[in-house]
Design goal:
This protein is 46% helix and 16% strand. The protein is of the alpha/beta class. The strands form 3 sheets. It has a 5-stranded parallel sheet. The protein has a 4-stranded antiparallel sheet with strand order 9-10-11-12, covered by helices on one side. It has a 3-stranded parallel sheet with strand order 1-2-3, with helices on one face. The chain starts with a helix and ends with a helix.
């Protein structure tokens, strides 16, 4: 719970109004989201396989849905999660579909993140990961969001389009883990809803979406050897409209329109990074500055559902320093527990880490 408080605080302070969070022990995450005012789609880190019995289960996922789905006036949603396709037996996959339809909620998992992901899926199922998800009926749910899709090929992209599957693009994580560069420009050409993600503090080290936006643009240009690839307007759309569409929430959030929920941020323009700011004419550069110059620390105000939750760069509903102090106090004991567990597991953990 302490970690969720700090992460959600960092997200709000840097202008993120809506997050998809996949992890464990998400009762505490729900409490943090409720208190701080962020909009959260919570997805338990589920595994239903005898070889992977150290994650959340579909039972705990369902309990979280029953308690927290649509809580805080709809600001908190709970989806059905799966860490990875390999982490569930087929009877569990059928249960996932049933839960999604029964509770009219979404499904989120990782797919095509690495070469190994594709190769292992071909070995086990004879087809590529997204093709497997289609064959197993995992895409035919009220809403589906796949993380990464770095190694999705053209046939899989067509499947994503057919089922209106959303994609969470995590460029910094994909670079840090040497996963590769996702074919984002091709996905956008096919009308696929691609949103921006950080992949969390473990794979990224911060939750600054402005940094993520810049990196997304640069990675697309670098990997495609095309300086015009993924222009600033496209990235702004990914961080707003298409990100909302990837969650099936395009009628509620993603743009400032009458009838939608009031989510907005205020960014300081009196900085060297935003200078010069040309607000009209052929040299208009606001979008370029937002993507390539702004940093999360430039956010002055964050509003979610019409409620100001960050004002004058400070949290409204919590004290950031107290949250930081709580994490610093808790961390040493957690690392000690981890070291003890690793020592007790011995060679089994070494083999797991190798895989």
């Amino acid at each position: 719970k302490i970690a969720s408080y700090l992460c959600y605080a960092e997200a709000l302070l840097s202008g993120t109004t809506t997050i998809v969070d996949m992890w464990r022990y998400m009762e505490g995450s729900a409490e943090a989201a409720q208190q701080l005012g962020i909009r959260a789609v919570l997805v338990p880190y589920v595994a239903e396989h005898p070889d992977h019995n150290y994650f959340e289960t579909l039972n705990s996922n369902e309990a979280l849905i029953q308690k927290w789905h649509q809580a805080a006036n709809g600001r908190i949603q709970v989806w059905v999660g799966l860490e990875h396709l390999f982490y569930a037996e087929e009877k569990a996959l059928a249960c996932i579909q049933k839960m999604c339809h029964e509770y009219q909620t979404g499904f989120h998992t990782h797919s095509n993140e690495s070469k190994f992901d594709v190769e292992e899926n071909l070995r086990r199922y004879g087809v590529r990961p997204i093709q497997t998800l289609e064959q197993l009926g995992m895409l035919d749910v009220p809403q589906c969001l796949l993380a990464h899709c770095v190694w999705a090929n053209s046939a899989e992209i067509e499947i994503l389009k057919h089922y209106n599957v959303g994609v969470a693009h995590n460029p910094i994580s994909n670079m840090k883990l040497a996963s590769g560069a996702a074919p984002i420009t091709e996905m956008l050409k096919h009308g696929i809803a691609v949103g921006m993600g950080t992949d969390g503090e473990k794979e990224n080290n911060n939750l600054d979406m402005f940094e993520e936006m810049k990196t997304a643009s640069l990675l697309a240009k670098f990997s495609g050897l095309d300086a015009a690839a993924l222009d600033s307007w496209s990235v702004c759309q990914m961080a707003t409209r298409t990100g909302a569409k990837a969650l099936g929430m395009q009628d509620q959030i993603g743009s400032l329109e009458a009838g939608k929920l009031a989510d907005m941020i205020a960014v300081d323009i009196a900085t060297p990074r935003m200078t010069p700011l040309i607000d009209q004419g052929p040299l208009f550069n606001l979008h370029t500055n937002l993507v390539h110059a702004v940093q999360g620390q430039d956010v002055h105000m964050t509003m979610v559902n019409g409620q100001i939750v960050v004002e004058n760069r400070k949290l409204v509903r919590a004290d950031l320093q107290i949250l930081i102090d709580q994490v610093n106090q808790a961390a040493p004991a957690l690392f000690q527990r981890r070291a003890k567990w690793l020592a007790e597991q011995g060679s089994a953990v070494n083999e797991l880490q190798r895989l």
